[in-house]
Structures are given as C-alpha cells and as structure tokens.
Amino acid sequence: MPLLNQTAPDFTLINTDKEQVKLADHRGKKIVLAFYPAAFSGICDQEMCIFEERLDQLNNAQALVFGISPDSPFANAKFAEVNNISFPLLSDLHLQAARDYGVEFENFAFIDGYTACNRAVFIIGEDGSIVYEWVAEHPGIEPDYDEVMAAL
Asked: What CATH code is carried by the domain that includes residue 106?
C-alpha cells in the first residue's frame, strides 16, 4: 500500500552502537530512509556508498539519512567500517519497520524462508509525512539518486 502523503510509520531500531533510535525523536527534520536487504551484498554496498558520497548534498538539504536493513548491529557496524559509511545504519531485526513501510521481501536471494527487506527509499518531510516514496520492483534495482536529491 502506498504511503505517499501519509504520516510516516514510527519505529524504534538499533544502531551500530546497540542504542535505540526512535524516528519520532527526529520529527521536524527531513529524513531519508534507505532500506537495503543485506550488508556486503554488492548492490547494497554500492547504494550505501553513493548515499555517503552525496552526504554533503543531503546535509546541505538539511536531511538526515538512515540506512535500514534486517542485519544485526554487528554486521552493520562492520559494513559501515569497511565502506566508510558515516550516517547511521539501523537494524530492523524483526522486520517490523519493513512491514510497516510495505517493503518486506520474502525468499530473498531465492532462499526459501529467508525474509529481508526490499530496496526502497522514503523521504519524510518536517511535518512527519512521506513526501517521496520509491520501492524497487525487486532488490536488484537501485534508486534514481538524482530523483531522490531533487525530491529534497
């Protein structure tokens, strides 16, 4: 179900320091949520690195960026270290945020029973509503980064 123009579902997820991050604590700011299925999986590496390369542009647009995956905080921490990712990577261990945003992806990598999240980008406006929504047809597709920047 599309979420565009609706209030963004709230969540509390774990960052790489094993601290809770609540979306509600960042209300009043522009937020980019970049869901990615799995650390160290090629396209995910490339996507998060491109967001890192564009971090100055995102900061100039006064936007916070959160990468979200079902990976553990330990895997996300190593992923951030190896790829020099400086924005927060959050662990959606129970896939609750993925379900709430409609991006849960079953049988990821053609593995029966392995549920991850699909690749997706949401931009949340200062008022807490979703002002941009992109969900990949499948996790092998990257977002249009210029379109994301233009939406900010």
From this structure: 3.40.30.10
